Amino acid sequence: MHNKNSPATFWVFEFIFRVLPHLVLFAVLIWLWELAVATGFITSIIIPRPSKIGGAIVELYITKGTIYRHFFITLTEAVVGFLIGATIAISLAVSSSLSETFKRYVIPYAIVLNVTPGIALTPVIIAWFGYGMGSKIALAAIISFFPIFVNTLTGLVQVDEDREELFQSLGATNYQVFRKFRVPAALPLMFAGLKIGLTTALIGAVVAEFAQATDGVGVLMSRFSFQLNMAASLATLMSMTTIGLILFYTMEFLDDRIVFWRRENRRAAASRARARAWKNQL
Amino acid sequence: MAVQDAIPAPQAVEDTAGTVRRKRILRHAGIFLTLILMWEFGSRIGWLDPLFYPRPSNIMRSFWLIYFQNGNVWYHLYATMSLVFLGWIGGSILGIGLGSLVGFNSVLRRFLKPYVIVLEATPRIAVAPLLIAALGFGASSKIAIIVLVCFFAPFINTLSGVMNVDEDRLELFRSMRASKMQVLRKLVLPDAVPIIMAGERLALTAALSGALVAEFIQRDEGIGSLILVYTRNLNMASAFACIFTLTILGFLIFKGMEKIDFYVAFWKYEGGRERVSAKRRAAMEGPDHA
Q: I need a surface site. Which of A60, A71, B10, B57 has the fewest CB within 10 A?
């Protein structure tokens, strides 16, 4: 017999009261949409029927599978661009935090780069790096640079004065101050910057694909919409959402693991693990 | 005696601070000029292909050309900026409206949350080709893109501003029997407005980017299509002149939003309350004392 506190009952209750209303609402919305198109209330050329979108999804993702190549190309462009942008941003931010002079001379250029809408560079970047993946990676790197740079730098510079004094009075070396004090203090802000940077990197890759490309989700999507094949276009948009979700949750996971002390339960888990290790040693 | 000797010291310190500052600015300018000159000569010697990496002197000439001699940039700037502002205002109204609606209604919030997460993960600019196909070429689809792109930041910020009400303060308000309107006006808004303004600032920048993307796709008018056309013709100097125009524009937008923030969310700034209450007092006393 299940009692009320058993996990199975809990999940059933969870499903009925929390998930089911969402699903019902979603189904009703989809049905209304279908009805609106079927009765001619919405023109089917502009907004296709949900069933048609479903058909396009099946075709693109299962029967033909055309999307996967483009999906991975865009994903690679965004991730590689992000990694390049983040590497440059973090190294510049660390150097700026270590040297006041360096910071003074770097910041004006970083600000100029920030107030320029990075997307405006798209045509020029394509002329420089060609029609292939290089230009998409470059644009993704450029527009993901600033949020990461500014957040890392802010995190490294804005430190608790009292704690710093404590470190100094305990005779910590410069390296120790940096490694054990500044970096941990900066990590939460840095991860916030990395999350923003990852989203903008995806935008950069997609926009560069709109402007000029042969492969990638962006090209696929603009091609479909100019053929007025809106169902396929929306199905492609879904894959962009998927890329966005994958990138976002990867970052969230890393954030949870690396900056574990910010979340109460993660902190508890980490200290439990440490206690276990300690006990085993004894 | 010693104390009196120490008095002029701050004066001396201030002087050196001034000279240090002047020297610093000179050094910045020196480095900047050196970089520009290196670029110019690198191009003249042949290290940089002037076809792709235009010389600074050529960029300056292009500035002169597109602003004064041909004067063709004004039309495109006007086309872009009018759409940016229209779309920004539309997106702000939509974002703040929906944000406060969702923020005050917990049922709505619960049911909208999954959609918001999905919308947040989608690169919103990606919907541009869809909107153009749906609404046709022209201003309406551009405005729709801008609205969509810049709606999100005010929405999220309004939502978090409205929801992050300090529980203790809310209890204090309740225990003093404040009406709902009073809670809204005296508790929620003062905390939420600075956050909403930060969202507006992000939205205006996003609106400019959205307009550029819309113009890249439509290629009819606006500064984005101008950049695209110049690059296609390998007239890189003019393309760069347009890009630097956008840099200046971005800077002006940033400063302008700071100024607006200073007046709208005045209580956030040092001495802001005193400034406004002095003004109010002057307005109240004005007719009697004039």
A: B10
